[in-house]
Sequence to fold (617 residues):
Amino acid sequence: MNAAATLTAAAAAPPLAAPRSTNTAWGRFRRHRLALFGLTVLVVIGLAAIFAPVLAGYDPNRGDLTQLRAPPSAKHLLGTDSAGRDVLARLLYGARISMLVGVVSVSIAAVIGTTIGLQAGYAGGWVDNLLMRFTEVIMTFPVLFAVIVLVALVGPNVLNVILVIGVLGWPGLARLIRGQALSLRETDFVTAARATGASDARILMVHIGPGVLPYVMVASTLLMASAILTEAALSFLGLGVQIPTSTWGNMLYSAQSLAVLQGMPWLWIPPGAAIALSVLAVNFVGDGLRDALDPRMRID
Amino acid sequence: MGRYVLRRLFISLPLLLVISIIAFTFINLAPGSPIDAMINPTVGLSPQQEQNLRIQLGLNQPLPLRYLLWLGQAIQGNLGYSYNTHQPVLERIGQRVPPTLELMGAALVVSTMFGVMFGIVAAVKAYSTWDYVLGAVSLLGFSVPSFFLALIALYIFAARLQILPAFGMSTSASANSLSDNLYHLILPAAVLSVELMATLTRYTRSAMLEVLHADYVTTARSKGLSNLTVIGRHAFRNALLPLITVVSLRLPVLVGGAIVVEAVFQWPGMGQLSVQAIQQRDYPVLMGLTIMISIIVLSANLLADVLYAYADPRIRV
Fold:
């Protein structure tokens, strides 16, 4: 069943269908309370990231040497870290990195994955075979290990981290899109398009593309959660975005001692909670999108 | 059955070869020659010395030839020598394999046991309070990053309650009894198992829901079989198949989790070695780790295939 086709059909013929405005994808999404909550959280985090310079009040990279590891106070709401830097400011600027990684690397992965998946599914034969074997090779390999090695080789900075996560993130999506393209290829409307002389490019763009779009959207959302987690893990290990640039992951990197864990909760709970909350929000949105677009959709 | 396993094995070998080619290419195209990492930068090398070292390390050969030389040695069990400790790579990695397998094995057993159990409960009691609680907890389980969970666990059990050790694999080098080892295993294994447990809870639930409405389950019920027999022998056995696939597909993620968990708990396994090898730019060790990790994942996949064939007789033919 093809959710986008149903949606466009419903949108194109409102006088014929009973006016059930709630039974649109957005209507179903809106009824999904957790998804709405997730979306709200993401909007708030996004705004915090955009307006970080206004909200922070402090330069995230400049420390006050008279205020080392100071507990939360009216002056520093979340205290300061070991270099006297304001934790709240670093948290807000850290949101920029997480959101940037989430959006940009997932866009890269979605473009690569959709292209490969469509190509493999539509072409079939040896092209399909070759592309899918290649996809399997990448899937077999632990992503985190591959990301760590590649980032170390090309240099650990924000841009490289984003690129590497994007370039390695597509296999799951490609397999999913391939499956969809494969079944859409056999539908009557594609046969009809081909019979009227439509080119392969046109069939892919106009007839198959819209059909796989809901899958791309849901898979990309779920991919965003893992991209944010991967960057955080990488920076947590000290192998990703380097200090002084602040990310939620590398804020936790500096908190790995029992003394900090026990005595200075303001150094590790806020960044950890921020990562967990944003990933949870993304997962809620992904779940809501899936239910709204096609409840029968199965995405691994 | 034997032929089936053999066939799967032959599919894995080219996969391993392709991974080794990709890894070798990337590692050797890395900016900065390995020689830079080996010499004292304040002393430096004369061009003649550097040239000699290049020839000695085989770096003057073209890349494909270097790969073939590496492969020739690797097949004979020689993965080169660590730049850092000058130990044979195989020996250096070999020491790290058992701790990683112990950690991953424990996490795999724990997460499968509890994940499947929770999933069955959630499916049998679908749309009840139990179901919602388990659903929320499992969503939380794969949203909270393992390293944050590790810090929380360290805070509660090692710092506050002081009932579990924080770091390492044994209390001291001399005291490596099994019980001491298991005592150190609890925290890292528990943290590592959470994500897979959460995933499995979700999958088991949906797989069980699907079969609970199948005709043969209705038949079994109408025969008057007990609830336990129906769920255990009729429904679960059929829900098991997709689960085997899910576990084997999630295995690479478990390896990634092990890297993080080993780093936090200073568990002396391959994950901790990977982080060290990256920091020290120890390329031969990195290459060896890539191969070893691939072998582990591919063998586990192979094992999953065999289990699948065992559980579903239709596959075997």
Observations:
- Chain B touches chain A through 51 residues (CB under 8 Å).
- The mean pLDDT of chain B is 85.
- DSSP finds 13 helices and no strands in chain B.
- Residues 14 and 95 of chain B are 27 Å apart (CA to CA).
